[in-house]
TrEMBL record:
One Pfam family linked to the record: Cys_Met_Meta_PP
Superkingdom, taxonomy of origin: Eukaryota
GO cellular component: peroxisome
Native organism taxonomy: Eukaryota, Fungi, Dikarya, Ascomycota, Saccharomycotina
Broad enzyme group: lyase
Keywords, comma-separated and alphabetical: Amino-acid biosynthesis, Lyase, Methionine biosynthesis, Pyridoxal phosphate
One GO term (biological process): transsulfuration
SUPFAM superfamilies: PLP-dependent transferases (SSF53383)
Positions bearing N6-(pyridoxal phosphate)lysine: K199
UniProt protein name: Cystathionine beta-lyase
Catalytic activity: L,L-cystathionine + H2O = L-homocysteine + pyruvate + NH4(+); an S-substituted L-cysteine + H2O = a thiol + pyruvate + NH4(+)
Family: Belongs to the trans-sulfuration enzymes family.
């Protein structure tokens, strides 16, 4: 077909040929592949270097992410680890100040042990962040919207500035929250887009996975070298599960977003301070709308009291108390004790991180049930 297909259609049609014409890409559970003869080794020899199920996944993601090169890895953090290995001691990295807790931990590691200079800044302040990106900046690490603070950065403006200062500056963008459905960071100027596929891309909380996408042949070569050298590539069965999860990405995320919007509006109607990019009250509502096609399904709100927040979370019956997001069921968490506990209390205070902040990740349930559950939890907790 020559007509350009929409992403919803592309997601469910996997191009793959296999020996027996199986309708679903098989999981090639083999660490090794036999050579036909010594002169013709074939495309696969060892799964650390390549596996047909991983290739089918990467080719599929390549269409979805509209990227020339895509690599699938063991986890989102393995993806970032592979990316930052291109840095050398003394190199300068400019990063956001509300990044995922694990990202913060890995950047602190390379700062401490690899002697790479890492600075964290408020990415919502365009003047500040661009003033920190100079001709000496080798890499910029961004995330938008962040969670749980739901901070939004102007990717195009920051990437344009970085490339003007230093054409070789690598702008890295974590697109876990928006997914390729709602945001195309490479089109907005990022050199590398990576995502934790543990979240929405897979959607069922049964595997860990990460994805890296780039249109640069040179960066792709370095990335593949590290993956092959370290064994960070995704395993065959996990590739197979991720291929399955991806087919329902659009259905899941659109419903989750619809639920998040209803919950956000209900919370706001209770005079609660809510952070969600779909609400006009969000300070960067317009900027987000300019660079994304959707607003996602993660929101956060404040109660004014950590003890009240803890009571609300304990009283919820439908929301699982867990880190992570992107699962088909709804989740609730207190980030300062959970996903963001790896950031010290002192740093959290410095970055104005409210300790009472509750994060909600909407699932695909009925929005009415989700709102009713929150209302009863508020009552039990003596809130509102
Ligand atoms: C979960 C997450 C990661 C890390 O991915 P893992 O698959 O858990 O290693 C990175 N960035 C964001 C925004 C995340 O939510």
């Amino acid at each position: 077909m020559t007509k350009k297909l929409s992403l919803e259609t592309e997601l469910v049609h996997v191009d793959d040929t296999n020996t027996h014409n199986a309708s679903i890409t098989p999981a090639y559970m083999s660490a090794t592949f036999k050579a036909k003869d010594l002169d013709e080794m074939g495309p696969y020899d060892y799964t650390r270097s390549g596996n047909p199920t991983r290739s089918a996944l990467q080719n599929h993601l390549s269409k979805i992410m509209k990227a020339k090169h895509v690599y699938a890895l063991n986890s989102g953090m393995a993806a970032l680890d592979v990316i930052v290995r291109s840095l050398n001691p003394g190199d300068e990295v400019v990063a956001g100040d509300d990044l995922y807790g694990g990202t913060d931990r890995l950047l602190t590691y390379i700062k401490t042990f690899n002697h790479i200079k890492v600075g964290h800044y408020d990415t919502t302040n365009l003047e500040l962040i661009t003033s920190k990106i100079t001709k000496d900046t080798k890499m910029v690490v961004l995330e938008s919207p962040t969670n749980p603070l739901i901070k939004i950065c102007d990717l195009k403006a920051i990437a344009d500035h970085a490339h003007k200062q230093n054409p070789n500056c690598v702008v890295v963008f974590d697109n876990t929250m928006m997914t390729p459905l709602f945001m195309s960071p490479l089109e907005l100027g990022a050199d590398i887009q990576y995502e934790s596929a543990t979240k929405y891309l897979n959607g069922h909380h049964d595997i860990m996975a990460g994805v890296i996408a780039t249109n640069s042949d040179e960066l792709a070569k370095k990335i593949f070298f590290v993956i092959n050298a370290t064994g960070a590539g995704i395993a065959p069965f996990d590739s197979w599960l991720l291929l399955r999860g991806l087919k329902t990405l659009a259905l899941r995320v659109e419903r989750q977003q619809e639920n998040a919007m209803k919950i956000a509006k209900w919370l706001e109607s209770q005079n609660i301070k809510v952070r969600y990019p779909g609400l006009e009250s969000h300070p960067q509502y317009e900027l987000h709308k300019k660079q994304c096609k959707g607003t996602g399904a993660v929101l956060s709100f404040e109660t004014g009291d950590v003890a009240v927040s803890k009571r609300i979370i304990a009283a919820c019956e439908l929301y699982s108390v867990t880190v992570s997001f992107g699962y088909v069921a709804s989740l609730i968490s207190l980030p300062c004790l959970m996903s963001h506990a790896s950031i010290s209390a002192e740093t959290r205070k410095e970055r104005e991180f409210p300790e009472d902040l509750i994060r909600l990740c909407a699932g695909i349930e009925s929005a009415d049930d989700l709102i009713e559950d929150l209302a009863q939890a508020f009552k039990v907790a003596g809130f509102r």
